[in-house]
Structures are given as structure tokens and as C-alpha cells.
Amino acid sequence: MRRVYLDNTATTPLHPEVLEAMLPYLRDIYGNPQSIHNWGDAPREAIEDARARLADLIGSRPEEIIFTGSGTESNNLAIKGLAQAYQARGKHIVISAIEHFSVIHSAKTLEKRGFAATSVPVDGYGLVKLDELAKSIREDTIVVSIVHANGEVGTIQNIEEIAKLLKGRGIVGHPDNRLPGNASFCIEFIEGEAMLMLLSSWGIAASSGSACTSKALKASHVLTAMRIPPEIAQSSLLFTLMRDNTEEDIEYVLETLPPIVDRLRQMSPLYAKFLKKQSGGR
Ligand SMILES: Cc1ncc(COP(=O)(O)O)c(C=O)c1O
Hints:
Elements: E1 4-5, H1 16-27, H2 41-58, H3 71-86, E2 92-96, H4 101-112, E3 116-120, H5 130-136, E4 141-145, H6 159-166, E5 172-174, E6 182-186, H7 192-201, E7 204-205, H8 221-225, H9 230-233, E8 236-240, H10 247-266, H11 269-278
Parallel strand pairs: 1-7, 2-3, 2-4, 4-5
Antiparallel strand pairs: 6-8
Helix pairs in contact: 3-4, 7-10
The protein binds pyridoxal-5'-phosphate.
The site of pyridoxal-5'-phosphate (PLP) has 13 residues, from helix 3.
């Protein structure tokens, strides 16, 4: 059976060039960069070289680059770190309703520590309402954290307009941004988990939302914030692609998915109700 991996925002294979570059450090050059003995010299030089090259790439100073183990760790560090650093200036932060949970939970933690947080709503396409964002900004706002590209539904925010709202006001913008090839669907009258299990039995890996919520069996907070009705949000299906996916992979998904949808709809009381309504109740 063909195997097609389309769940790359959950995790993705290492790029071969990255693997090659990392192998010496995983195998032979294993000193701790902080060590006083000279096992640490080569790893320390490699890290500082990587830091300098990254800084050059994004036009920052090397000491401004902090390496973390994950997106969640980066978001926690950025939001809580900025809040701590700027608390003398103000104690208000703004996020949107469709942020990743690592942003939402960082804001909630800060609320428990005496900060105030405002969550700005989005429209039916997941776009942050700019007038609401403008209204939410206060004298004591220090951070605005809005995901540039939503990893679940693929909405790309108008980040330039958002930046204009913040400019010259001493507010730090944090555009948490991750978006590989993303295709998001809601397939009516079907329960997303059942669809994922059947797809998996045909060798296809997909997701029903962000990796953290896909096992929670509840509609994603992103779709809920977009006011997608719960019965439709329950049927969400997310494919996220990587560089190795081929056209044949996608053809295989296009062949495999419709019969699965038909099969599940045949078992759906909601679909039966819909058909009855369509035929004028006959
Ligand atoms: C927008 C966004 N931010 C943060 C994260 C968390 O990243 P990680 O899984 O590396 O902790 C994700 C994960 O999918 C994400 O989509």
C-alpha cells in the first residue's frame, strides 16, 4: 500500500542537508559547549558560527539570537520574557483568538501574574479584525502577539497593517509564524476522527487540526473563533505538505478520500436528515 505523509505541521522529517551537517555533532563532537575542558571548544565554535550566520540572514546582532528546542518554548520565552522586561512600562498584552495554545496559555499565565490580556476576534476567514485590534491597544500595551500565518487554516494576516498600528507606540510585535504547504477543509456530515482513522488505514497521514488538539476530540478553537458551526468544525481535515510529497501522492489522496467520505456519510444521521430535507421530506 502507498504511504502518504501529509501531517507535516505535527512533525516533519529532517532535511538531508541538515542531517549531514548535524551528524558529526551527534556522533563525534559531543562536548558540552559550556565546558572548561577543550571537548567543548568545537561545539561552542559551531554554535557561535550558526548564530552569526543566522543573525546575518535576518539582519540582527548575533547576541539577539536565542536557540530553543521548539515553537512552544520560543513563544513562552518571547511573550513572558517581553512581559517581564517591559512591565515597568505597562502590563497589557494583546493576542488574537486563533493563536497557537503556546501563545494563549502564555497570556493566561501572565494574567495570573497581574498582567491584563485582550484576545482580538477574527472574521469568518480567520483574519484579525483590524478595527478591533486598534481598539484593543491601550496606553499600557507592551506586546501584540499575532500569528502571521495560521498553521491550521492557512490564513495569512495583513501583518503590514498590524505593524502600522503598533509603530511608534513602544509596542513589540510578535508574529509567531509557521506555514508549510497547508490545505484545510471541513467535510460536512462527517466526524473528523473517523475520517482520519480510515485515511490512516489506507496509508494516509493527515490531521484534524493543530497537533495539540487533534486528540482532544473537540472542535478546534481556531474554527470556533471563525464562527464555524460545531457540527462543521468537527469535520475538519488538514493536510500539510513537505518537499518530498509528489503529485502521485496527491492523486492517491484524491482517489482515496471520496469513497471514505461516501462511506461515512452513509452512516451519518445528519446526512440522512439533510437528504430528506433536500427531497422535500419525502
Ligand atoms: C503557529 C504555531 N506556533 C507554535 C507552534 C508550536 O510549535 P512546537 O510544536 O515546535 O512546540 C505551532 C505548532 O504547530 C504552530 O503551528
